[in-house]
Amino acid sequence: MSTYIKPFKIQVPDSALNSVKDKLQIATFAKEADFSDDWESGAPLSEVKRLAAYWKDEFDWRAQETELNKLPQFTSKVSVDGFDDLQIHFLHQKGNRPDSIPLLFCHGWPGSFLEVIKILPLLTGPEDGPSFHVVAPSLPNFGFSDGVSKRGFGIPQYAEAMHKLMLNLGYQKYVTQGGDWGYAVTRMISVQYPESCVASHVNFVRAFGPPSFFTAPWQFIKHAILPYADHEKAGRARTDWFFEEGFGYNLEQRTKPSTIGFALADSPVALLAWIYEKLHDWTDNYPWTDDEILTWVSVYQFSTAGPAASARIYYEKYTFKS
């Protein structure tokens, strides 16, 4: 199998852009209710309407595409055992020092390779500290990488694909960064390929309640005696909120991804609302611009495997245990 590294430019067909505009033109929105503009019940109606109108009338994907294409992007073919070969899209920005460290930067859902863009200068050309050769791929079923048409493509297979991408680039040893599903993938890489993955950094650490007396008695006593700091209390409250009120998407995508997939594949408004809610709720009051939101959503809208494919990672993870 050839692993030839090919330069890549994002080139969304005019027909795809026109299709989105046409669907936005005839979009049907939910009727107003007394909770329509309350974030507690999901993406507010007024915000989704406003963004949909901006997407239809003003948002310039070609301008965003031009900016993204200034970044060094490539594709490479990888072979995953038991599956068809996959063309993997990735950004590859080399560090400016001879001692730069190869870094595999893996996104999650609803993320993409876009996550790394703003920190590329800090990673590849820092004034002090380590420098990195940054490899930021689109995971299979995401962005501009191929989709997987066969069941059973779980976290071990994602890890295999990412590891083989690094080998294709000549990186026999490397470090990893992972958030969300990128956390699961890079952790699996460290287990499956310890001879290559020499260090891992994660920005996804799940917080749970205090241990029980029966599972960890000394920790239980410590937690009972020592008070929590304010930031720890806030973190626990946030975690409780997430599992009580913010976890519905996960249950849907892990059990019935095809059902939600019909809406995401057919309706740009549905995709916008589905992703925008998470951008709002999960990013600590980051001041998203309309162009940033719609560029983020557009990477899913125009993805090679289609807007619905990325949800399959939830189903595969929980159906085919790994």
Mean pLDDT: 94
Q: What CATH architecture label of the domain at 5-14 and 63-202 applies? A: 3-Layer(aba) Sandwich
Tell me the number of helical segments per DSSP (H or I, 4 or more residues long).
13
Q: What would you report as the Rg, rounded to the nearest angstrom?
A: 21 Å
- SSE-based structural type: alpha/beta
Indicate the proportion of strand residues: 5-15%
In the predicted model, the low-confidence regions spanning at least 5 consecutive residues are none
Widest sheet: strand ordering: 1-2-3-5-4-6-7
CATH superfamily of the domain at 5-14 and 63-202: Alpha/Beta hydrolase fold, catalytic domain
Q: Indicate the overall shape.
A: globular
In whole angstroms, the N-to-C terminal distance is 27 Å
**Main sheet characteristics:** 7 strands, mixed
CATH topology of the domain at 5-14 and 63-202: Rossmann fold
In total, the number of strands is 7
Order of helices and strands: EHHHEEEHEHEHEHHHHHHH
The CATH class designation of the domain at 5-14 and 63-202 is: Alpha Beta
| Fraction of residues in H or I helices | 40-55%
Explain this structure to me?
This protein has 322 residues and is of the alpha/beta class. It has a domain at 5-14 and 63-202: 3-Layer(aba) Sandwich (Rossmann fold), CATH 3.40.50.1820. It is built from 13 helices and seven strands. Helix 6 (181-192) links the parallel strand 6 (174-178) and strand 7 (197-202). 32% of the residues are buried. The model has no long low-confidence stretch (mean pLDDT 94).
